[in-house]
Amino acid sequence: MATFGNTTSESDGDQSISFWYNGDKNEYVRGIxxxxxxxxxxxSISAYIFRVQDDEESKCAxxxxxxxxxxxxxxxxxxxxxxxxxxxxxxSEPPKIYKNKYYYIVLYSDAPESDPGNxxxxxxxxGYTGTGYGKEIDDYPTFPSTISLSTESGSYYAIYCTYTxxxxxxxxxxxxxxxxxxxxxKIRPIQI
Length: 192
Fold this sequence. Notes:
- With 192 residues, this protein is an all-beta fold.
- The protein has one domain: Jelly Rolls (Sandwich), CATH 2.60.120.
- The chain contains no helices and 17 strands.
- β5 and β6 form a beta hairpin.
- The mean pLDDT is 81.
């Protein structure tokens, strides 16, 4: 398995994903932009959750950064108020992803209607340097089919995608009855 995104939990604070403030519901999609090193299939997204007020439903998603279109959404997870750690969200149908293509890796959480006090619900750690992206949507659990995220400087969120690489081999004929396959570097005889 390989990853792309921000895998460090070192922190320069944290940022709200969902909360109520003065009776107003606030639900944000927040994350970062990165590219995988190889083609593959995304299996999960992990986010470092800093604080949860109550048990909250959350999901993650991948968006194609070239056209802001939704690639795939993870299964929903309920984060308990005792968890301060990496939380992993899985894709029930892993989407194909491509090297050198940039993706937004984002988290989205519910701010429940049943408790609209001045409470903060889900918060995500952010790193010291780097750029994060975010947008207020207030329509959990629905991820829009396209999204226009705003830059959030100094908010390189602790979120990353895990994927299974698609490994390819190139066969080279050495001209003397031997071949080599790039990938494992072994030279093998040609069998006719």
